[in-house]
Amino acid sequence: MQRQGSWVGNRIIIAIIGALLIGGISAAIVGYGVPLHAPTKAGAAPGSNASTATPTGQITASGIIQSIDPINNTFSIAENDNSIQQVNVTNTTQFSGNVASFNDLQPNQQATVTGTLQNDGTLNATTVAVGNG
Questions:
Q1: Which of the 8 DSSP states describes residue 98?
Q2: Could you give the C-alpha distances from 63 to 25, 33, 108, 130, in angstroms and in order?
Q3: C-alpha closest to that of 43 among 60, 65, 30, 27
Q4: Is the Cα dihedral 7, 11, 16, 18 positive or negative?
Q5: 56, 59, 115, 131 - which has most CB atoms within 10 Å?
Q6: Whole-angstrom Cα distance, residue 69 to residue 73?
Q7: Which of 72, 46, 74, 76 is nearest to 61 (CA)?
């Protein structure tokens, strides 16, 4: 009899664990619309390349250009915290440093981007400054 009670107890524990796993997966799916890379507050760790908020409501992200999509006018940068920030370039984006336009961007360049964070986590670039890295 004790054996059957133990078996029932194990089934209850397994059911609880399953419900927790399903609940966690559901929460992750529901939360998918949340940006994968939330910017840190201005004045975060000195010397950090993590995105920071500016007083104007824009954020600044710095890192190494990883990929460039000329069809969609986007590129991605890898920040020091290993996050990837997707950047959207518009016809009003201003370029400085070693580039004059989107067409001058190359992978492995160091870039600092200031822009507006979108609901999907992408950054609409206001300025893109490219250095030697």
A1: S
A2: 31, 24, 9, 10
A3: 60
A4: positive
A5: 115
A6: 6
A7: 76
Query: How deeply is 81 buried, as exposed, middle or buried, from its count of CB atoms within 10 A (0-12, 13-18, 19+)?
Result: middle
- H helices within 1-133, ranges in order? 2-30
pLDDT of amino acid 118: 92
Q: Distance between terminal CA atoms of the chain?
A: 71
Pull the structure tokens for residue 133.
Answer: 């890295």
**Distance from C-alpha of 77 to C-alpha of 113, rounded to nearest angstrom:** 9
Domain 52-131 has CATH 3.30.450.150: no
Q: Which amino acid is at 131?
A: G
Q: Report residues of the chain scoring pLDDT below 70.
A: 1-10, 13, 15, 18-56, 132-133
CA distance 75 to 87: 5
